[in-house]
Every structure is written in structure tokens, then in C-alpha cells.
Amino acid sequence: MPKVTIATVAERAGVSRQTVSNVLNTPEVVREETRARVIEAIEALGYRANQAARQMRTGRSRLIAVRIEPDRDGINGSVLDRFLHGLTDAAAPAGYRVMLYTATDDTEEIATFESLLTSYDLDAFVLTSTHHGDARTSWLAERGVPFVTFGRPWGAPDTHSWVDVDNAAGTAMATRHLLGTGHRRIGFLGWPAGSGVGDARRDGWASTLAAAGLPGTGLDVAVEDGIDSGAAAVADLLPSLDALVCASDSLALGALRAARESGHPCAVIGFDDTAVARVVGLSSVSQPLTEAAACCIDLLAGVLDRSAPPRQLLFEPSLVLRHSTPL
Amino acid sequence: MPKVTIATVAERAGVSRQTVSNVLNTPEVVREETRARVIEAIEALGYRANQAARQMRTGRSRLIAVRIEPDRDGINGSVLDRFLHGLTDAAAPAGYRVMLYTATDDTEEIATFESLLTSYDLDAFVLTSTHHGDARTSWLAERGVPFVTFGRPWGAPDTHSWVDVDNAAGTAMATRHLLGTGHRRIGFLGWPAGSGVGDARRDGWASTLAAAGLPGTGLDVAVEDGIDSGAAAVADLLPSLDALVCASDSLALGALRAARESGHPCAVIGFDDTAVARVVGLSSVSQPLTEAAACCIDLLAGVLDRSAPPRQLLFEPSLVLRHSTPL
């Protein structure tokens, strides 16, 4: 029996070899009826694409790897789940599939890189949760492994392609809204100093207050993320405040609870516009996660083709207003 | 230069070939310092495992595919995200990685099966959201593609391995709790008849009421999932009720809102113990998703080895009590 090739399939289906290739690699770009005809030919002839042969031909595995974040309190972690949904949705039409891995810190993630690169033929990585002194990007860059990051290279030069959301712009927007609705004693509930994202969110609040000629000193408090920790941290500060910008929805939920329990009214704005914020009526800064994920896939194409120099894209967040910030 | 093989790497690292293989396939089972030594040898010798060759040797790609569900209201969809976290966590120590795909219905999912099977060497699929007349399982079974399902084969014979959570037991448990705390007019807010999961959740409520000699007639209402739809659907029913069991947390949140707005007190229990339920104090039935996901990976090993006949495992849910069901 003669060997079944893409050419044999193309001949039987009455299409070009490129069309057969498209059906195999990017079926989304092929019209439904053409796709059905090619698949009929593939099945009738018993054609089975050889992944290894295809990779040798194209130099591509069409697999990209991304870390799935630990399932924390189900509130802030859900942001990266939404990014993952966006990435998977955008990858398929571009001819890629997403492979998952887990890791608890940089060291474990780099060990996983090694394991994945020796065991699977991966085209690229999409890294999330970039941070100061991020050992992952230099490790990949030194070995010539293609990658893009969702998150800028905090404190490191812009030598790779990345997509990020302007965190400082988000809290600045929230602070301006509170100023515009008559609040003057606007506090900030954030994370301990040192995290790029957390510091940027604090800066957006501080610089907006300063630009309005208002003092921020003594109006901010830092604590590990969480509802309970947020409620405890803000309790003493509440009598001095009429509004509060928070670095996360979890912290904001804690602040809302503390305000309710103390009977001290306080407008509260969270960050990330999670499902919980929608349900409890918490105003929150929203990141365009679907757009950012699609952009990561776009940038990857340039990285893999070496067709473009590294590019960086910063998205603007938006502010979603609800009951927690009465006008 | 002589070809670098697993044997060469093993010799340099002073370990067995099996240990090198473990570092490549299941690094988690190798001690940290041994792993470091093997990786040093791999890097020094420039060894690069050939995925294609490895597959031909083992007949395994060590890749399994699972659908990522659309991001709906961020409440009920989060259950399958939690399942995905559990699956990814359990896959790695077993030597597997998880690849994602999306699909909006059975037809599109089967088209995606075809595309994935011709373009990637996949070992198996893990299917979620099984339902009556599920075309996906028979399609895979006819082609001899290994799979397990999270969800039983509603109305079809148990010819494949599956893991499920006993939905009826969950609502029965909720109903018994309400009976035990003195409620007598216990309603049910569920989905339109026809979905296996939804019908089972309704049955658990109905059979528990019947066993207690209480009438359920006229105390249930069915509506598409959602907070707003739940609130609207239950408004007319509330005056007849002192408690309500719901098929989802979204419906339960709608019921809580309707009860608050009508001023009619009503104990409410949701289903799935989502992050939102924890935050707003909604009692809810909790599925052991991490355990179910790990069990799917265990069953897959048997399916891939053809070492065991199909197995089926039904997990018991548990009831998490919060403010929405005052004692």
C-alpha cells in the first residue's frame, strides 16, 4: 500500500496541500465544508500526521507552556485563571495549544523548565507574575528559549517582549474618582513594599493625592493579602478616613467588613474586578485580561519568527463603579 | 563525537538509567541533589531527549488534553477551574502534562478532537461536563482513543472509566440539615429538566422531602443559571417557603437577594461552595474537586496500561454551613 501523504489527502479532497496543512494546524481558518471534506479524506485514507516529522519540517511543535497559579482564596487567584482562559482562546486560532505546569517559586519553576524542555518539544513559554530579581527570564534568555511575559521585567532592562497592565494608572483613576466625588481623606490598603505590582498600585494613589495637594502620610497600611488580614489592618485607620483604595479585592472586602462592623462609613475601591466584587457591589479596577492574553499570543509570533525586535505593550485598566462608592 | 544517550548521562552522573529517565519524566520522584547531578550531566553533555524517539520507545507522549470551560459569571465556572488546578497538580507527579483546548458544544469539541489527534501525539482526554446523549464519549471509544470522564455517562452504559460526585446526595444532605433545624416548607430552585446534574440535584431534595412525609409539590421552580434569573424566579415562591435548596451558588445568591428585598426570611443553601459563597456567608454543598481530579489521573493510568477494566468512582460531597442557614 502506498504511503499516505498530505499530497494524497489533498488530491482526494480536491484541495491544495496548503489547505490540508491548514486543516491540521489551524482548522479555524478553513471553511466548514472544506474542512469536512479534508477530514473525510484523512479518515478514509487513514492518514495520521507524524508530529515528529512535522516538527522537523516546520521546526515548530505548536505547544506553548504556561504556569497555572495555585488556587488561593479563589478571589485574587481567579485573575490569572481569567488570563489563562484568554490565552487558550487566543492560542488556537494562531495555531498553538497551551500546556500547563505548576511551580511554587522561581527555583522550582526553573527546574520545571529543564524537565519540560528535555521531555517535550515546546515552542515557547508565557510567564506570569514577574517580579524584582526574576530568575526565570534570564534563565530562559541565556538558553535561547523563546518566551513572553505577562508583567514587565521589574527593575531589569526591556530585553524581551512583554504585556502588562498599568497598575499605577488603575489606583490613580480610583483615587481621582474619589476626589471628584468629594472625598478628602483617602487611604490606601496595600501589600508590604517590594512587590513591583503592589508598589505601583501604592504609587498611583500617593502621586494622585500629592498632585491634588493632599497629604497621604499616615493614611496607608500594608499587610499580606486576604480578607481577614485586610479587615484587621484597616480597623485602626478607619476613623481617620472617608475613602479607601485597595491593592486587591480581597483586601477591599476586608475593609468593607471592618467599616460595617465599626459603623464608620467609608467608600472602598478594590482591584481586579473579581466575581466576588460584582456580587457584593464592590467598586473595583478592572484589568483587560482577555486583550492582554491575546496580545501575548501576538507577540509570541514575532518572537518565534524572529521577525520583530522585542515589543512591550502596556494596557490601561478601567474603573467599575458599584455600591461601595456611593456618589 | 559519540552520540549522547541516557546511558552516557547515567554514567557521568553516577546513577542508573532509570534515574535519568525519572529526572526526564517524573522529576518529582527524584531527590533534589540527585536531580541536580543528573541535570548537570545532561547540560554538560548537551543531551536533548528526543520526544519523537521517546514516544516511539514508550508509545507515550505523556500529554493529556482537557477542555477549559468558558469563563461565565465567574461563580459556577470557577468549579471547573478548580478541577483543572487539581488535574494539573496530580498529572505532574504521575509523569503527565495537561494540554488545554476550548469548545462550545459537542460538535465543535469532536472537530477539535480530530484536529488535536492529527496534529499532536496525545495519550488521552479527560472530558468534563458529561450529559445525556453525549456524542463525545462514543466518538472517542469508536476510535480507540483513551479517555476518562469527570461526570458519569448519563443514561449510557458504564463502559468507560469515570469519576463523579454524588449530586443527589449533596442536595439530600442540604435538605436533611434544613429539616433537622426545624424547617418544614423547603423549596428547590434548579435548572430546567433534562440535565443529568440538575435532575440529580432536584431528586436529592425531592426524595428527602418525600421520605420525611412532607409535600414538595409546588415548592420548586426551574430557571437558567444566574443570579438575576434566580432572584426573579423565586420571588413569587418565597412567601410559601421557610428554606430553599439551590442547584448552584449563582441561583442561591439570587434567592438571598430576593429574600432580602422582599423582607421574607428564608434559609438558603447553594451548591459548589464557590469563593463568593465563602465571602457572603452562603451555606453550600462542596464537591471534593481536588480528590476527584487526582482520581481521574489514577484511572487514566489503568486506561493507558489497559491494566484494569473500566472503573467508576462516586465521591460524596459535604455541606459547609454559614450565615445563610441560621440555626
From TrEMBL, chains A, B:
Gene3D superfamilies: 3.40.50.2300, lambda repressor-like DNA-binding domains
Pfam families xref list: LacI, Peripla_BP_3
Domain of life of the source: Bacteria
MF terms (GO), sorted A to Z: DNA-binding transcription factor activity; transcription cis-regulatory region binding
SUPFAM superfamilies linked: lambda repressor-like DNA-binding domains, Periplasmic binding protein-like I
InterPro entries assigned: HTH_LacI (IPR000843), LacI/GalR-like_sensor (IPR046335), Lambda_DNA-bd_dom_sf (IPR010982), Peripla_BP_I (IPR028082)
Entry keyword annotation includes ATP-binding: no
Keywords: DNA-binding, Transcription, Transcription regulation
SMART domains: HTH_LACI
Residue ranges of domain HTH lacI-type in the record: 4-58
PROSITE patterns hit by this protein: HTH_LACI_2
Name under which the protein is recorded: LacI family DNA-binding transcriptional regulator
